[in-house]
Structures
1.
Amino acid sequence: MAFPIQRLRRLRATESLRTLVRETHLRPSQFILPLFVVPGEGVRKEIGAMPGNYQLSIDELLKECAEAESLGVGGIILFGIPDKKDELASGAYDDNGIVQQAVRAVKSASRKLVVVTDVCNCEYTSHGHCGKIIDGDVDNDSTLDWLAASAVSHARAGADIVAPSDMMDGRVGAIRQALDEAGFGMTPILSYAAKFASVFYGPFREAAESTPQFGDRRSYQMDPANGNEAIREMELDLEEGADMLMVKPAMPYLDIIHEARQRFPTPIAAYQVSGEFSMIMAAARNGWIDRERAMMESLTSIHRAGADIILTYFAKDASRLLG
Ligand code: PBG
């Protein structure tokens, strides 16, 4: 008998065979495109480290949304850069804040896109931290009030989903209770449950102008070394009422995505963050890597690991390619 009998190469011989047996398929409707909104009109300012991504005024944001929608992209997540920042993050929970205005505009222009809002304070505080500073560190419990108020004002503006990204303990419970009391019992929470203190957020902080003015975020975001703790974070968020769980970043944490998929029967999201995007773009611009293939391979891997929903700066380009 000739060896080997099992030849896995048989099913790889032609593109048609490969297509027939392909296990993982990406869909534009599973992508969420992050967008940065600023005050003003006619503003479309490219973010240096994130080619093809812009700070957009609301009129420009609507163009971006129309394009995303026409490509079949499932949704957008909005980040706001306010006119003024202060110690109290007032812009975050102002019913007339930049994100609240943007949500109202997008919701009246688009019927299809799912509008997610990032619930956090770091874009709104003068010090760039995600909450109220007491004795040189972010105070957990007083920050919960800001988060709950932000989530309610986003829901009031018409957000389809609120997504807390601050990593305070108990925020999902506090937000759920506040939403319910304000009459938004049907607004789902997508929790950034396993959010690591990652170097890969660097380019985002340029985009959102949210670099901490002192220290770092390691007293609230997770240690990249900890997998069991990520599971505890996700369990707790589900107990507190999260409807969906997110892992962030994505590619360096595929093991966490996979484990979340095995353990929790809820939708799992993953955020392919700014640094993951910028690395691919930088290598492609140097001619060191093929941009399209790197984009599709990274997204396929994130989906294969178990993410149903992918937040990605490639949402439009990948959707265009998927046709
Ligand atoms: C807000 C927030 C951050 C990101 C999403 N929400 C930045 C941070 O935690 O410093 C990062 C997203 C990205 O890098 O693309 N807290």
2.
Amino acid sequence: MNKKLLVKTWGCQMNEYDSSKIIDLLNVSNNYELTERPDEADVLLLNTCSIREKAQEKLFHQLGRWKKLKNNKQGLIIGVGGCVATQEGENIRKRSPFVDIIFGPQTLHRLPKMIEESMNNKIPIIDISFPKIEKFDSLPAPRTKNATAFVSIIEGCSKYCSYCIVPYTRGEEVSRPIDNIIFEINQLSEQGVREINLLGQNVNAYRGLTHSGKICSFAELLRLVASIRGIERIRFTTSHPIEFTDDIIAVYEDTPKIASFLHLPVQSGSDKILTMMKRSHTVIEYKSIIRKLREVRPNIQISSDFIVGFPGESDKDFEDTMKLIKDINFDMSFSFIFSPRPGTPASTYPCDIPEQVKKNRLYKLQKTINNQAINYSNRMLNTKQRVLVEGLSKKSSDYLCARTENNRVVTFKGSLDLIGQFIDVKITDILSHSLQGKLINQ
Ligand code: SAH
Ligand code: SF4
Ligand code: F3S
């Protein structure tokens, strides 16, 4: 009988991507079957996130629950991976000695060997090193039935924003060789994928080697991906303002396959706070990128991440952020209260902002952005939208669900053979979290 595997994942899209690779790997190399039930699993893996403290607390709660299973099942393997694993390493075993394997985001490809060793030798294994790019050479070919797929192009981050744990948990930026990426996207396209989402902490820092030893920029990579047959829409997450260069804007101008929706985190609208965050750009520089983008793509929608309550953020700094939000007219965005992360410079900055003030700021910011997002949705009523049909709607089996270029979910009546295709729908109703539409017969 095949062994059973359960993988639980928290955190960003990169963690989701890594987990899908772990599953592929154990499925292909070790014939593991996936299960949703922890009590029937032989291997339980957690892929963790440490971007804010709540994410980290989740790990120990979950381990507490799994510990009981271990008492009832001899030989059950428990592994912890992801960013908390790199951050805490050995400490995880100090607090939870029943954990068998601790692996990092850059060593997950070694899991089959680690599991085997742990089963045979009954000794704990810790491998949270950062071997350069070896990961991609060791992963199985992608397999998917979906119309949209994520492809990692750059790992790690070298920006060291003063508040952020990622450079310490994922290592420095390492670009994947270009041929490797193009080969993977070709394989995905042959499996029916129509939309690609290029992944990395800072995708526009991409500097990949070609087989002839030249360096390929992010703009060049975008053009190459757009030339792959079958790929009709391209997205990327996340890009950083400091490397959002004019050659990337030029790709927006002449390559319609690049989606008119950009997630470009700004974090704050105050130059003082941006400097303290070590973001390396000013508000004017950010606005100038958006102005140039809107010159070539007048309807592009922009989303962002914001941190409120950063140490030293005054009422005036916060008002500057609110002003930027209105000036840019951001669409749906992510926003968080500053969370001091161990070992980061900002965790030592003195902060006297009362908790209630932080909460009020977050509430005000989210309310404004939500209203702006609703306005964008309202403007879509009665328009024609090109959507990628992703599957059956969760609400009713008569309905399909699809995604618009600006990332809205649309449900509409249609036949199953439309799944995986781009089609046109007319938007007939705006609901609070999705849109309703009607198929336009072509
Ligand atoms: N590389 C991307 C985002 C990485 S993390 C970028 O630089 O934009 C995702 C988001 O988490 C960040 O954009 C930031 O808004 C938030 N974040 C990171 N560290 C944080 C912290 N210490 N406290 C609160 N939010 C944080
Ligand atoms: Fe963190 Fe800054 Fe790197 Fe983004 S760019 S992952 S916020 S250090
Ligand atoms: Fe979390 Fe690590 Fe992603 S800290 S946000 S899982 S890079």
